[in-house]
Write a structure and sequence with these properties.
Elements (H helix, E strand, L loop, with lengths): L8 H18 L13 E9 L4 E11 L2 E4 L12
Antiparallel strand pairs: 1-2, 2-3
Length: about 80
């Protein structure tokens, strides 16, 4: 599964160059970002036995207000005989 990039290559390079310039000016060698907003995750939980298996898979994005599901699918239990 591929996700869309946030910036064009030229915009990313420009932002990175400006950030590095500001870091040098401030005397910083390392920049750590801690804001989790807009981070995407793919959660998968399941159990697999010899003759049976079940899994739950859910991609989601962290927002300032909590989270947002990225898939609009039925979330009920499906039983296959």
């Amino acid at each position: 599964m591929a996700y869309q990039k946030s910036f064009a290559e030229w915009e990313y390079a420009d932002r990175l160059a400006r950030t590095r310039q500001r870091m040098r000016k401030a005397g910083y060698e390392l920049l750590l970002c801690q804001d989790p907003a807009n981070m995407c995750f793919h959660f998968q939980s399941g159990v697999w036995l010899d003759d049976f298996g079940a899994a739950v898979s859910e991609p989601f994005v962290v927002t300032e207000m909590g989270g947002e599901q990225l898939c609009d699918v039925h979330r009920g239990l499906v039983v296959v005989d």
